[in-house]
Design a protein that fits this description.
mainly alpha
Length: 293
Amino acid sequence: MVRETRAGYAFLSPWLIGFFALTAVPMLASLYLAFTDYDLFSPPQWIGLENFERMFSDPRYLTSAKVTAIYVFLGTPIKLAAALAVAMLLNTKLGGSGFYRSVFYAPSLIGASVSVAIVWKAMFIDEGIVDRMGRSVGLDWGGWVGDPSKTMPMFILLTVWQFGAPMVIFLAGLKQIPSELYEAASVDGAGSVRKFLQITIPMLSPVLFFNLLLETVNAFQIFASAFIISNGTGSPADSTLFYTLYLYIKGFAQFDMGYASAMAWVLVVVVGLITAGLFRSSRVWVHYSGESK
């Protein structure tokens, strides 16, 4: 038994070393730095809660929190709605459904990479392909990248365009719903809307909860596209100043690493609270097979 335990720890050792060296120790170090004044070049000086107090009087910090909140709480539901709508279409007996699944899933394979952000920026700049297409039908949109009122819709379009991953998960969930339920509902005279609300949504609620949780956490981590499109500044007029981008600016552009560490821990706490809230709310609206509520 002892030999088996030692062998298990031996196989686990690469992961344990990586966890402590690359995750646990850096997290503890950043927690300490959050209470210090540290510029990367001189020893950190303990200042207590001053970094956290500065956040409430920092207008750019408040702007970054607002921009991120709009993106998360507006972009995530739209992305999930698009993913569910397409999944329901692909769940029908449609010719070439395998091809369409691959096409819709492909953008998710690319992810939020630098190359995608560069292409997206080129599409939405003044005289870009989106601007030219708009003019061809009489719409003078102008460049979205340089217009503060259009940057958020542009980022939401980018995240909605990459709905392939939640779509595949929704599609798998839809295929697990017994067709007998829909047949019985049809016999009772239920229409498409009633079937969707009373059969599809309750039966799909565990998958919906999983996608909502995953996409919400991922949305808070947006960085690469914001950095590329705004040239690392959050321009224009801080309309693209997402939380993680401002954290990067404070830590690696202005060398205010103590403040950046405090920002990181505030983000951890906020995401943790939202995650806990989602789990708590799931007791009300998530229904598992064989469970009575």
